Amino acid sequence: MSKVLMKGNEAVGAAAIKAGCKYFFGYPITPSSEIPEYMSKALPEAGGVFLQAESEVAAINMVYGAGGAGARCMTASSSPGISLKQEGITYAAGAEIPCVIVNMMRSGPGLGGIQPGQADYFQSTRGGGNGDYRTLCYAPASIQEIVDLVMLAFDKADYYRNPVLIAADGMIGQMMEAVEFKEPAPIELPPKDWATTGTGGKREPNIVNSLYLAAEELQVHNKNLIKKYELMEKNEVLYEAYGLEDADVVVVSYGTTSRIAKTAMKQAEKKGIKTGIIRPISLWPFPYEVFKTIGNNVKGILTVEMSAGQMIDDVKIGIEGRIPVYFNGTQGGMVPTPASILADIEKIAGGIK
Question: How far apart are CA 228 and CA 90, in angstroms?
Answer without folding.
Answer: 15
